[in-house]
């Protein structure tokens, strides 16, 4: 790793393979770096700490905060495109970079709909797309009124910054809502309220789009949420009617074009008990629901994102097996005494077909520290293997009681 104290001093060689700057040093940037290596590119990351997952492996690291315009400028110098591991960069900073000639992808006028949930809800509603009923919450009275209208089956959300269940509350009474709203508004948070949906399951439709306007989708997947975060992804979503899957992919394609998205976008969807689809959220970056494609698709999301932001022709997204299941490796309540390396040895001995991706992160409860992909023919069998493998890597305990030493 080279920590660049003065990127602006580096010369820019137009004949060299491209350098892409990614804002954020998390696991998404780490896996994008893996894809960049195969394409002969360099991925520069803006990371807050040298120990961040991407900073451990990327050839060029700028240390700084995504809220610091000076750090963003330093990271951008000489790069062919600037993109994101997360959506939390202030919109005004990105607009300043664009004005200075930086190729920001996705552009800020698109990214704002992944940053600001109220802007997203308003835009999608204005486009006639199906979304849950919603309202801005600027006072306790707003939340109480909406809760009364919807029988207290509502969700309160932070307009900006929430993820993996953070910034989401489900009050069941006026008193609960009043306490939450009072606290959050005092902290300066912006809020909205949404109707809670009777769900059959959650889905994700992922699309990639280039500045040229070429776009490609992956099969719609089912995402299984636990404790507010993604635990399992099944690709393609089992028992999803063909016309519903086609409608979801078409929605993602049209939305990417309408918003001017460049790069990868995940359209997170609710499938209701009646079989209807509602848009939950948007993510304009590689996304947990696309990790299955690293091993299960001809072109995975990380390579496709690089192709898109550099305006290369996009890759084939066809699946490589009838089913791929991704299971997140989540930190156990207490880290096992057995080392991660030994756990990996035992996993490979029992399930040699497992493809493991570890993020270089310390273990703590419910933290995403890696994921496992398994490909196969039978959904139930592949899912059982993937979840068993992920649980073993998290807890050093086989869910069926198998003893590796016997």
Descriptive overview:
- This protein starts with a strand and ends in an 11-residue tail after the last helix.
- Residues 5-11 have low confidence and may be disordered.
- 32% of the residues lie in helices and 25% in strands.
- It has 406 residues and is α+β, with helices and mostly antiparallel strands.
- Helix 4 (108-115) packs across helix 5.
- The longest helix is centred in the middle third of the chain and has 18 residues, at 242-259.
- The chain has twelve helices and 18 strands.
- Strands 10, 11, 12, 13, 14, 15, 16, 17 and 18 form a nine-stranded antiparallel sheet that branches. The protein has a five-stranded parallel sheet with strand order 1-4-3-2-5, with helices on both faces. Strands 6-9-7-8 form a four-stranded antiparallel sheet, with helices on both faces.
Compact overview of the structure:
By secondary structure, this protein is of the alpha+beta class. The protein has 12 helices and 18 strands. The strands form 3 sheets. Strands 10, 11, 12, 13, 14, 15, 16, 17 and 18 form a 9-stranded antiparallel beta sheet that branches. A 5-stranded parallel beta sheet has the order 1-4-3-2-5, sandwiched between helices.
The total strand number stands at 18
Gap between N and C termini, in Å? 42 Å
Helix content: 25-40%
Strand share of the residues?
25-35%
Largest sheet: 9 strands, antiparallel
Low-confidence stretches: 5-11
Class inferred from helices and paired strands: alpha+beta
Overall 3D geometry? globular
DSSP helix count? 12
Question: What value does the Rg take, in angstroms?
Answer: 21 Å
Order of helices and strands: EEHEEHEHHHEHEEHEEEEEHEEHHEHEEH
